[in-house]
Amino acid sequence: MGAALVTAALLTSALSEELYFLGQREGDLHCLGSCSSCHDALQQLPRGRFEAASRHTDLSLRTAEEVQQWLSAPEVCDLLLMFPVDIQREAWSLAALPSEEYLSYRGATQETRRVVEQCEALQLLSIFTWQGAVRAPDLCSDTEEPQSCFLRARETALAALQRRWKELSRAHTERLRSNVLEVVLGRNDSVLALLGRANLALAQAQEKQSSEGKTSLVFLASGASERVLSELALELGRTARLVVEHSRTVWGLKQLVLELSGVYPNIQSQLPTYRIQPFYGRHFDVLEALLSSLEEDKADLGSEGHRRVNVDITLDIGPELRMAELGVACGPIGLHLLARFSGLQYYGADPTIKEEVREAYQPYAERAQLFATTSEEMHTRLSDGPLMDFVFIDGPHTYANVRNDLHLWEQRVRPGGIVAGHDFTVRHPPLLWAVSEYRMTHDGHYINLAMDGVWWWHIT
Q: Are 287 and 456 in contact (CB under 8 A)?
């Protein structure tokens, strides 16, 4: 524990630097400033399950120029900046390198350069794809056979994109294979699997070209674009962002290994496997998907709601979903999830809950309880209640606080439930170590990682 505290002191950013970092983004969906503007932004999101996540790249709401700006955003491949997650530029990623000199492990400079090259290749390809998509309607609108014209335009564009991608990606991928993953993730090639998304997207587009004897259009807020090329452009844009985001997390872990290797010589072999998940969206989108999986799991148990833990014990888990959040702040997580899960029972702890947050939760008063206490105090007050399905740890990101929350709350989650948290990013080394060390010392073999710093594992 002493080494972890030393690491925290060495690596935690100064407050002034953190405020500067936060000031680089736009949009209302970060929910770290004005709670009222955060609540207004959440109210504007669609309420259907997963509709908020799909809205990040919904073409029907935007113009061709706005999509082009999102695809070509200079922040995407700049490792020191946050990038816009959604076309509206209302949601931004939370991970960025603190400085150019932050990473000091061997080979860091080469690795970051190669990832930037790969990102720029993906970004360039997405821009070319989008330009082909929006040009097709104009090229073919005045022809006698527009359908045949669309098919030829799409075929020509896809052939050119395949050639360009092979030229751009071959050397970069081989260099990434030899460097990005070897220290922390061992044989886990999840980052390279993200690069495979580009190959898969191109292959699927080619398959649609050969199997579909027609073409269709996507109608934008103004104008139209060819559907197959539009979908491909967006997937390439998402892939560029995923590669950068998860690479930065890997680098944060490798830097942590360097800082701790003097105290823990065998740390590399003791770390859990980090399973990088390809989900695209903000943290409340990721949690929506996780809760949905738990809801389906409970539905599969039937009306009795029992699960056999072993031969002698059967656990009554009940039909409703029970969730505890540690660190409510403006309350976006609970507000987002309560609006989409009618059977969710929510418990939130935060010593500094504002009155405007309580007011925002009033529509869910029968299903939500806010505790203006620490997570420890809420844990004590709920000690006689049933086990939780889901615990989300997002309080102070100090080593001691995260370890304490894990110690207290993992035992309060039912078998099959999920322990999760936020901000598993290069910006929070004490949290990276607290979560990783906890799994190391509690026989945890893996940690799932998703976009926007979400981490989790299932209770067995």
A: no
Residue 266 has pLDDT above 80, yes or no: yes
Q: Are strands 368-371 and 314-316 parallel, antiparallel or unpaired?
A: unpaired
CA atoms within 13 A of residue 6's CA, in its CB half-sphere? 8
| CA 164 from centre of chain | 29
The pLDDT of residue 169 is above 80: no
| DSSP assignment string, 70-130 | HHT-TTTT-TTS--BSSTTS--B-----S-TTS--STTHHHHHHHHHHHHHHHHHHHHHHH
Q: How far apart are CA 370 and CA 330, in angstroms?
A: 12
Q: Are 338 and 364 in contact (CB under 8 A)?
A: yes
**For 249-257, what is the mean pLDDT?**
92
**Could you give the CA distance from residue 97 to residue 221 in angstroms, rounded to a whole number?**
35
Fold of 283-458: Rossmann fold (3.40.50)
The residue type at 312: D
Give the C-alpha separation, 385 to 383, whole Å. Answer: 6
Closest C-alpha to 86, from 122, 62, 63, 55: 55
Taking residue 73's Cβ as centre, other Cβ atoms within 10 Å add up to: 19
DSSP string for residues in 249-306: HHHHHHHHHHHHTTT-TTHHHHSPEEEE----S-HHHHHHHHHHHHHHHHHHT-TT-E
Of the candidates 49, 118, 27, the residue with the CA atom closest to the CA atom of residue 79: 118
**pTM here?**
0.87
Taking alpha carbons only, the member of 344, 349, 350 closest to residue 320 is 344
Which has the higher per-residue pLDDT, 318 or 185?
A: 318
Whether 127 shows a pLDDT value over 80: the answer reads yes
The residues facing 458 across adjacent strands are 418
Strands 224-226, 388-393: parallel, antiparallel or unpaired by DSSP?
Answer: unpaired
Residue pair 353/329 in contact (Cβ under 8 Å)? The answer is: no
Residue 1 scores a pLDDT above 70: no
Of 320, 343, 321, 348, residue with least CA distance to 333: 348
State yes or no: pLDDT of 9 exceeds 60: no
281-340 residue pLDDT tens: 999 999 999 999 999 988 877 545 555 444 444 455 567 899 999 999 999 999 999 999
Q: Provide the mean pLDDT of the chain.
A: 85
Q: How confident is the model over 365-423, as pLDDT tens digits? A: 999 999 999 999 999 999 999 999 999 999 999 999 999 999 999 999 999 999 999 99
The span from the CA of 182 to the CA of 203, in Å, is 28
